[in-house]
Every structure is written in structure tokens, then in C-alpha cells.
UniProtKB/TrEMBL annotation:
Protein name: Shikimate dehydrogenase (NADP(+))
Listed GO MF terms: NADP binding; shikimate 3-dehydrogenase (NADP+) activity
Record: active site: K67
Protein task: Involved in the biosynthesis of the chorismate, which leads to the biosynthesis of aromatic amino acids. Catalyzes the reversible NADPH linked reduction of 3-dehydroshikimate (DHSA) to yield shikimate (SA).
GO terms for cellular component: cytosol
Pfam families listed in its UniProt record: SDH_C (PF18317), Shikimate_DH (PF01488), Shikimate_dh_N (PF08501)
Documented EC number(s): 1.1.1.25
Pathway(s) annotated for this protein in UniProt: Metabolic intermediate biosynthesis; chorismate biosynthesis; chorismate from D-erythrose 4-phosphate and phosphoenolpyruvate: step 4/7
Assembly description: Homodimer.
Organism encoding this protein: Caballeronia choica
InterPro entries named in the record: Aminoacid_DH-like_N_sf, NAD(P)-bd_dom_sf, SDH_C, Shikimate_DH, Shikimate_DH-bd_N, Shikimate_DH_fam, Shikm_DH/Glu-tRNA_Rdtase
All residue ranges annotated as the Shikimate dehydrogenase substrate binding N-terminal domain in the record: 8-90
Signal sequence residues: none
Length: 281
């Protein structure tokens, strides 16, 4: 039997770990999955996707810079993809192209299952108000935190997110607020997530030192072989710090589940990947 075909599309794409991760998932679950990588054409995303469908492709992961193109291309969107305004998972079937977003579930699962921090009743500080931040809000509400504060360099964008998610916050009984760095609640937060693009150029996002304490988990959505400036800052203030490698593995696990209906063990694959990356760093 020929395996079903999947791929990750992005530009650049050569360093993507997704093919390795999905190969491990396929092995682990025995699912007949073949997973490749496609260098997407800037300005030609739709053509690339249609060509993959023509060639028998069943689904795709979408990464930088095509998540908004994928959102625009999809015939239908899951509620979490619609709320995120971005798509990282495409599934192709008789009903057309379905767009989903597994990034938010990925970070939530990494925090709760791999790092062992419960979000129920937690006070969460979310730094950033771009696409990455927007995608994690609903999956976090699902875990029933006590409070979510959104802080952004451009305060108006944090206010926009607070407006967008006000009804959902009320329904989930979450205290939602946001604005510039000085809008944080007093005292240390349980979880602080860096969803800004700051780590890409070694910039520490504006945040109050009092938000970090020995009981805080400081989570950088970015992965880099060395601790990011945000992680170092948090550790210097006594907090525990984590990078985004687990989120990468867990969003992949959720995509695999979306496509195959089978949930792989992300934790096992994360431990293996971490070992390989540490050995080659
Ligand atoms: P993404 O999809 O990665 O979220 P984005 O939508 O462009 O990308 O959003 C980038 C986020 O990182 C924004 O919240 C941005 O802050 P502004 O809205 O003020 O631009 C934030 N960001 C980028 N560089 C930053 C820096 N050096 N310090 C603090 N925040 C930064």
C-alpha cells in the first residue's frame, strides 16, 4: 500500500524539523504516512498547494511566511483557525481545503503535559499581540486560567486583542486585560509567554521584573540552541525558563491527530529531539 502524502511548506524550509518529527510519529503509530518538505514560492503559494493536491497530497503544515496565505486559501476554517487569523495545518478531502491552527494547542500541551504546569486557575502574562499571540488565546481559555494579561510594545494592538476575545473571556470566566507594559497585575505571574518576535534579534520585550518569581514559568515560543535573552532574563529573576521546542513537537502531534485521528506521543519524540539537538549544538 502506498503511504498517504503530507508535507510542510515554507520559505526558507531546509532547516524545518517537521519531516523528522512526523517520520517519528508515523513509526510510533504505524500510520502509513510519508512527509516531505516543499520550498514555497513567494507570491505563488496557492499554485504550490494546488500542485501538491494534484499529486495526491492529503495535508500540509504551513510555516513562515505563508500562514496568512493559507488562511485566505482555505475553503473552510476551524474556529481556532478563524480566531487565530492564521493557518498552520491544511487538510484536503472531498469538501475542499480545510484550514486549522494547532499552534495554540501545541503550547498548551507542552506547558501542561511536558513541563507539568497546570493552567487551570493560573495567572498568565502574554507578551506580544501579533499572529503568534492571537493564536494561543482560545486554547488557553479552554484550560480555565484565572487571568490573562496581554502586553505589547504597541499598546493599541493589545487592546484590539482584548476586544476580540472579550466575549470568549467572559464565557470562560477569565479575567482578561491588556495594554502597554505597565498594565500588568501586581505580583508574579504563574506563566509568562513570550509571543513577540523579539528573540529573533535578541531583543527583550518590555516587561516588569516583578512579574517573574521563583514560581513562574517563563516560556519563549521561539526555539534556539542557546537560551534566548528572554529566558536568561527570567532565570536571573529566579523563574524557570523553557523554549519553544516542545510547542513545535506538540503542534505537529495535533496536526497528525487532525489528519489521522490518532494521537502520537509528543513527549517521547520531544525527549529524543532534544537529545539530538543538544548533542549537535
Ligand atoms: P507573529 O506572527 O510572529 O506574531 P507579528 O504578527 O508581526 O508576528 O507580531 C510580532 C509581535 O512581536 C508584535 O507583538 C510586535 O510588537 P509590535 O506590535 O509593537 O510591533 C512584537 N515585537 C517584535 N519585535 C519586538 C521587539 N524588539 N520588542 C518587543 N516586541 C517586539
Amino acid at each position: 500500500m502506498n503511504p498517504d502524502r503530507y508535507a510542510v511548506i515554507g520559505n526558507p524550509i531546509e532547516h524545518s524539523k517537521s519531516p523528522w518529527i512526523h517520520a517519528r510519529f508515523a513509526e510510533q503509530t504505524g500510520e502509513p504516512v510519508e512527509y516531505g518538505r516543499i520550498l514555497g514560492t513567494i507570491g505563488g503559494f496557492e499554485k504550490d498547494v494546488r500542485a501538491f493536491i494534484e499529486a495526491g497530497g492529503r495535508g500540509m503544515n504551513v510555516t513562515v511566511p505563508f500562514k496568512l496565505d493559507a488562511h485566505a486559501l482555505a475553503d473552510s476554517l476551524t474556529p481556532r483557525a478563524a480566531a487565530a487569523g492564521a493557518v498552520n495545518t491544511l487538510a484536503f478531502d472531498a469538501n475542499g481545503v480545510r484550514g486549522d491552527n494547532t499552534d495554540g494547542v501545541g503550547i498548551v500541551r507542552d506547558i501542561e503535559q511536558n513541563l507539568g504546569v497546570k493552567l487551570e486557575g493560573a495567572r498568565i502574562l502574554l507578551l506580544g499581540a501579533g499572529g503568534a499571540a492571537r493564536g494561543v488565546v482560545l486554547p488557553m481559555f479552554d484550560r480555565k486560567p484565572a487571568a490573562l494579561t496581554i502586553v505589547n510594545r504597541t499598546a493599541s494592538k493589545a487592546h484590539q486583542l482584548v476586544d476580540q476575545f472579550a466575549d470568549a473571556a467572559q464565557a470562560a470566566h477569565v479575567r482578561l486585560s491588556g495594554g502597554a507594559a505597565d498594565t500588568v497585575e501586581a505580583g508574579a505571574y504563574d506563566v509568562i509567554v513570550n509571543a513577540t518576535a523579539g528573540s529573533l534579534d535578541d531583543a527583550l520585550p518590555d516587561c516588569d521584573d516583578a512579574s517573574f518569581g521563583p514560581g513562574s514559568l517563563a516560556y519563549d515560543m521561539m526555539y534556539s540552541p542557546q537560551p534566548t535573552v528572554f529566558m536568561q532574563h527570567a532565570q536571573a529573576l529566579g523563574a524557570r525558563a523553557a523554549d519553544g521546542l516542545g510547542m513545535l513537537v506538540e503542534q505537529a502531534a495535533e496536526s497528525f491527530f487532525v489528519w489521522r485521528g490518532v494521537r502520537p506521543d509528543g513527549g517521547a519524540v520531544l525527549r529524543e529531539l532534544r537529545k539530538i539537538l543538544t548533542a549537535t549544538a
